[in-house]
Amino acid sequence: MINRKSNTYQDAGVNIDAGNRLVEEIKPAIKSTYQPGAIGSIGGFGGLFQPDLSVYKEPILVAGTDGVGTKLRLAIELGILDTVGIDLVAMCVNDVIVQGAKPLFFLDYYSCGKLNIENATKVINGIASGCKEAGAALIGGETAEMPGMYAKKDFDLAGFCVGIVDKSNLIDGSKIKASDSVIGLASSGPHSNGYSLIRKVLEEYRKNNKKDWEGINLDKALIEPTRIYAKALLNLAEKISINGMAHITGGGITENLARVLPATFDANINLNLWERPKVFDWLQSAGNISQNEMLKTFNCGIGMMLIIPNQEANQAIDLLESYGETAFKVGEIISGAGKVKILS
């Protein structure tokens, strides 16, 4: 009789014990994100949240999902993993807030070939940090170890956010009118978009062993986490009429702002009304990228755009500055056909 070795899941590359240890490591960070309504504890089959609906007449749930894109590849190559979780939260939360919704809760999905508890803890602590900044509870997630799907050090991230808004406060662009002002909120850099092109440009640039450009530490500038605008915009919405908002992500200023414009109005955007961060100057110069390509790929220094009645624009900018944001009046709404027109 031949004695055959008994195979285990761990022999196939999946370590359940490591996954359990990770859960214990991240419990304090997750608990620190809890908001009123978050109930239950981490480790269940589903996250639990009980919203207080008494403050809403006609509550509407708003959901958003996203990832970090190939910025994750740059983070892995640089060994800087404590901020990509913030990026993940920001990409989802900033999409939800443009419709006026308060973020309620967030879930993440972390998949890898072989679980590295130290690295995963850094990433998920970053997610928790982003959730606290956004005012959302991290109520659950999933860690998947999938040998054969990823190279040794590789992993991927996805996230899911749910927010809530009263129907009467929903921001859908229907109130936009001619003479409204367009206000831009400064980004922290490229955020989490266009990194396939950024990495291509960076690879070519680094062939000459150049680490910096005109005093800019490129690694630091390119890994800077996406700005989370949720709390500032929720505070602003209590005091100012916001007729439309656009999160400037993939597609840049020209495509994202157009998504909220009614078919009978255009937006005139003046590029001279804000100072573009130098990292974009490096990118355009080093990559020989046209202005049109820059505008339809990157945020070019504006991470969020608001459309506000002209008479409230200055007050809105003052309030945003008091909330810690940097804001500019970057354009105006005119009669047209739902297009974004760039003035320079």
Provide the descriptors you would attach to this structure in a database record:
344 residues, alpha+beta, 6-stranded mixed beta sheet, 4-stranded mixed beta sheet, 14 strands
Strands side by side in the biggest sheet: 10-12-7-13-11-14
Shape: globular
* Helical content band: 25-40%
Q: Biggest β-sheet: count, sense, barrel?
A: 6 strands, mixed
The helix/strand order is HEEEHHEHEEEHEEHHEHEHHEHEE
- How many helical elements? 11
Our measurement of the CA-to-CA distance between the termini, rounded to an integer number of angstroms, reads 83 Å
Q: Mind telling me the C-alpha Rg? A: 22 Å
* Poorly predicted ranges: none
Helix-strand makeup class: alpha+beta
Strand content: 15-25%
Compute the number of strand runs: 14
On the 0 to 100 scale, the average pLDDT is: 93
